[in-house]
Design brief:
α3 packs across α4. α6 links the parallel β6 and β7. Helices cover 29% and strands 21% of the residues. It is α/β, with parallel strands linked by helices. It is globular and about 45 Å long. Strands 3-4-5-2-6-7-1-8 form an 8-stranded mixed beta sheet, with helices on one face.
Length: 220
């Protein structure tokens, strides 16, 4: 089934460069299958990601988002709260419904979903379905908490299929703090000889965060 493209319900006065600042231009526009950011504390990687995904959800009416952390009990006070912040930051809160108990967020003009799951039981995640469009994007936050790549790959396999739209794309966004040299994320995304196919990967630091004051910068 092909859906008509819904208008982007972002306030026209919003300047996204002013909202997110500098340092993430290529990350923001990337449509690689794997979009990866290794960023230190204070590098605004999570805030940039939630604003980007919220904007894209409103832009592409076929898209639904699966948000993953290693443990489900960490989602409500991190990723879910970050998405609420993004919705209010973009001044589109009247277009979203928040379900605190699930947790789950619905874009009400179309019924698209932002779903939140933990990797406590990876196999349960592979059976998730949506009513509108397709589950085509996933965001792994704090991915360094995931002990081995097999749990990660189990969820990635659930992002499959296609959709009858010329602008359709699937994407896995991965964000995390710097790792140990032995962590699987390094070889999977950053080592040239073993990097996963169709990967865009960047490293950011607090220096690209214009909104840190001098006290914050001294701490980082």
């Amino acid at each position: 089934m092909k859906m008509n493209k819904a208008p982007v319900n972002v306030q026209p006065t919003i300047n996204f460069r002013e909202v997110i600042g500098k340092g993430y231009n290529r990350f923001w526009h990337s449509k690689n299958f794997y979009r990866v950011c290794k960023g230190s504390r204070g590098s605004k990687k999570s805030k940039t990601t939630v604003i980007n995904l919220t904007k894209r959800l409103m832009q592409y009416p076929w898209a639904n988002i699966l948000v993953i952390r290693r443990f489900s009990n960490t989602l409500k006070q991190s990723c879910y709260t970050d998405f609420k912040w993004a919705v209010y930051r973009l001044k589109v809160q009247h277009l979203f419904k928040f379900n605190e108990s699930m947790p789950e967020i619905t874009y009400t003009p179309t019924g698209q979903k932002i779903l939140f799951r933990g990797l406590d039981s990876p196999l349960k995640i592979t059976s998730i379905t949506v009513n509108v469009g397709i589950l085509c994007w996933a965001w792994f936050e704090e991915a360094y908490e995931i002990e081995d790549q097999h749990k990660f790959e189990t969820v990635v396999e659930s992002i499959r299929g296609s959709y009858d739209s010329p602008d359709f794309f699937k994407q896995i966004t991965v964000t995390f703090n710097p790792w140990s040299e032995n962590h699987w994320l390094k070889s999977y995304f950053f080592d040239e000889d073993t990097q996963a196919y169709d990967t865009f990967a960047i490293t950011t630091t607090y220096k690209c965060n214009e909104w840190l004051d001098e006290q914050d910068r001294a701490r980082y």
